[in-house]
Amino acid sequence: MSRQVFLGFPEGKLSFALIPDLFFSELLPGINDMAELKVTLHVMWLLQRRRTKPCWVSQDELEADPILLRSLASTGQEPLTALRRGLRAAVERGTLIALAGQVQGRAMYWYVLNSRQGRRLVARAERGEQLLPGVLLRKEDSVPTPRPNIFSLYEQNIGLLQPILAEELEEAANKYPPDWLEEAFRLAAQSNARSWRYVRAILERWEREGKRRVDVEDAEARRRRYIEGEYKLYRES
């Protein structure tokens, strides 16, 4: 694959982003994850450009940022998965501080730099100040481990994703819980039935009959159920 060549900075006045010296002496030597590095630098850049208060960046904003997602595409992972991994690593390292809150029943996260300004904002949230209308914020020492999305699950357990399946996979991701998807793909791989039709058949059966706790079923009986039972037709599809 040919490397994209940068043509150089143009003439005239340029804008610059300020990076603290401690980033290069204290943080950079310890960062070995390209996703963490790219996310950290991008969040620093966004926060410097912020003109509104509070000075933070939301996870929703990052997940919709085309520049960041294009950058993370080169990490070898699906961009949203790489983003969440990078955010988690930056929070655990202490570079970023995460604030969490519930908005219409959904957990949401906002990130500030672990600087004097950022720590003041966190202190205000911990005192119970309403930084967002109707949202009670709390400091999070970690953020949830990102789940692989359905496209990553497909490529990890079945193979190269065919574009014709993308819309159907997206519909399934919106319809079924993430843990169902992960388990269905895992069962397909264990049964050596690596096809989307097989995975879909499992999900549809769970939807019709209810999903039972598979951890209390006998392993050999479960293997026969998926290999020799009603899903046999889908193994070679």
General description of the model:
This protein is α+β, with helices and mostly antiparallel strands and about 240 residues long. The protein has two domains: about 120 residues, Winged helix-like DNA-binding domain superfamily/Winged helix DNA-binding domain (Arc Repressor Mutant, subunit A), CATH 1.10.10; about 80 residues, Arc Repressor Mutant, subunit A (Orthogonal Bundle). It has eleven helices and four strands. A four-stranded antiparallel beta sheet has the order 1-3-2-4, sandwiched between helices. Strand 2 and strand 3 form a beta hairpin. Helix 4 packs across helix 5, helix 7 packs parallel to helix 9 and helix 9 crosses helix 10. The longest helix has 16 residues. It is globular, with a radius of gyration of 22 Å. The two termini are about 35 Å apart. About 5% of the residues have low confidence.
> What is the CATH superfamily of the largest domain?
Winged helix-like DNA-binding domain superfamily/Winged helix DNA-binding domain
Number of domains: 2
CATH fold topology of the largest domain: Arc Repressor Mutant, subunit A
Q: Describe the global form.
A: globular
Low-confidence stretches: 213-220
What structural category do the secondary elements indicate? Answer: alpha+beta
Compressed to H and E, one letter per element, the order equals HHEHHHEEHEHHHHH
The N- to C-terminal Cα distance equals 33 Å
Mean pLDDT figure: 85
- What is the percentage of strand-forming residues? 5-15%
In angstroms, what is the radius of gyration? 22 Å
Order of strands side by side in the largest beta sheet?
A: 1-3-2-4
- How many individual β-strands? 4
What is the C-level CATH assignment of the largest domain?
Answer: Mainly Alpha
Give a quick account of the main beta sheet: strands, pairing sense, barrel closure: 4 strands, antiparallel
